Description:
- The protein is α/β, with parallel strands linked by helices.
- Among the domains are: 16-82, no CATH class; 259-424, no CATH class.
- It contains 20 helices and eight strands.
- Helix 4 (93-104) crosses helix 6.
Amino acid sequence: MLRVRVVMPKFNKRSKSELLRQWVQDCGPSDYTTDGKLIFCQVCNKQIACEKKFQLSQHSTTNQHLAAKNKQSSLKQTLLTQQTPSSSNLKNEFCSDLCHALIAANIPWNSLNNPTFRNFLDKYCKHTIPSESTLRKNYLEDCYRSTIKEIQNNLKDCLIWGVVDETTDSCGRHVANFLVGKLSEDEPGKPFLIACRVLEKTNNSTIARFVNDALRILWPEGGNEHKFRVLLSDAAAYMLRAASSLKIFYPHLIHVTCIVHGLQRVAEVIREQFPEVNTLISTTKKVFVKAPVRVNAYREKLPEHPLPPEPILTRWGTWVSAALFYADNFSAVKEVVCSLNPNDSLAIKSSQDTFKNETIQRDLAIIKAHFKIIPRAIQKLETCGLPLHASISIFEEVKSELECAPPQYEEILSVKLSSILQRNPDFNILCSVNKYLQGNSVELPEEIPPELVSAYKYCPITSVDVERSFSAYKLILSDKRHKFTPENLEKIMIVYCKSNYSPQDDKI
């Protein structure tokens, strides 16, 4: 009997990265992404353990995944609805403009209930004046939608940078703000607030999801992940982890931590090195707080001098600025303080004792000689629209100045600076871009294509814009306006910031 041997063709075993990409393609590239090593669920915002393909399929059927997907679909539908014409065109144009004007001027809507104000509007506007509830229910949404549309048009087809931060508001809630701006070689990118959300808790997962959801407001139909190029934040551990997660969604993203925050941490180290100066500043401040008689005595003797500064540790560089004030006005302030009765207050006695300390003037002179550059640098870096080379030059100047500090301070400051830069993962990339754009290097980081490098000319390296948005938030959420729903507060914040922090002639 003749036997025929069949030889089967040999197939090369597929690599793990190829398998992962195929599984993602089969199970839904809109839900999952992979870097060739791990699979990340974009719906649940977490890594998926997948040794076999069926594990990915199983995850797709979990209650958690399905609930998150339904929420995502609902959000997308809402955003798409916002782009379609509605009955808002039929609404009263005067009421719409009035709603926008009141928000922009931060005038509470219940002011319309004031008889004098309402009579004024009735007399001169020649329009029916709406009630507070009418504006809130019928016109706020339209103002918000039109503002988002303006921002979308302004940033259309542009590479963008984003900045995120979190704070605790006066109601004890965790609030996160996210702003975006254009990366352009022609002009600095104006910051636009696009999301202001209350978070149940603050961690890397909630921040990453918040940023991702905010960008869906800017790009409701998706497909623009390549445009998000720079993320700015502080150097908190959860921010660093959140940025790492976001890089899975946005493969061209670089993460830079705020340089001004870093300089503030250097200033805190300086304060720790001069305890006597710190005592002088804190006690002398107390001498004149809520003491009009002492204030009058100070102004009579020193009419051309401002009162001793009251530094706030959370305000960048104010402690060093206060030390510089005492370095310049030591003798004059000492004379006033020492003329007061030490029995009147413990602060007076403590301040007098510190003024008499033999080393205090020497310490103030050291601060003035070596560290005055810090508050000046912070002030410069807070300027809007600085070119990248100017911002980096300011930081390098501070770094060089600190390297010339006395040996007993130079080492500890050097260690602190190194620690700050280690927690600034992609700052070196922007430094390399700056050298390239200044003609000092021919090498370019692989993360930056040569055809796009000029767009980084005005790339920011500070998060001052988001800090300004928190100032606006505190202004709007006053003690008498705690009845805002989080949704309405976000809409008002976005309209207010667009109206006040962006030139009106940029409206499209």
